[in-house]
Amino acid sequence: MKPNSFLYLFLLFAFASTACELFQVAPATQTAVVQTTVAASWTATQPFTPAPTGTEAPTPPPDPCAPEKLAAAVQEVNDLQRQFDDLSALATQLQREQVPDKITEMQSLLQTAADQETPPCLKALMGHQVKHMNLVIDTFLAFMDGTDKQTLDDKIKQAREEHDRYILEYAHLLGLTPTPEIITG
After folding, report:
1. What is the pLDDT of residue 178?
2. In terms of DSSP H, where are the helices of the chain?
3. 173: CB partners within 8 A, 6+ apart
4. Structural domain boundaries of the chain?
5. What is the Cα–Cα distance from 185 to 182, expressed in whole angstroms?
6. Which of 27, 77, 120, 176 shows a CA-CA span of 20 to 30 A to 43?
């Protein structure tokens, strides 16, 4: 074979290959353009900020037993006690047939008191409160059932003693000196 025929065959093969897309010049150019575009988009983004790892401690809720919060926490408990005391005093003034409605209201206040969250510093105060409320309600129920006078007097005495314990704890928490005025309210 002559060298010209060899060159002719080579050109024919190259032309045929290009026509059949054996040599793909365009896709290589497109790939280079796409890679350049991707690289350019990476450099235009914001710098990476790592997500929180969860090791940061959450902010704890305010401590109701902290000195600056204690008076407000005690007041919240005492507001409920005052409502109960007012309601029980009113019940003593009513006709016998009107008392059951007030007992129901006192039981509702007792339930509210029992359901209150109790910080450690108020456990004793709230314990006296709930015990006093139970004793008062039991006394009214005994009265409604026609219990004898001596039993009623004993129940009233127990309720009063528990109320006095409540008031002494209240005074202690607020740094007050217990006096007869504090105890009798």
Report:
1. 76
2. 3-19, 25-44, 67-93, 99-115, 123-144, 149-174, 180-184
3. 70, 74, 121, 122, 125
4. 3-42, 67-184
5. 5
6. 27
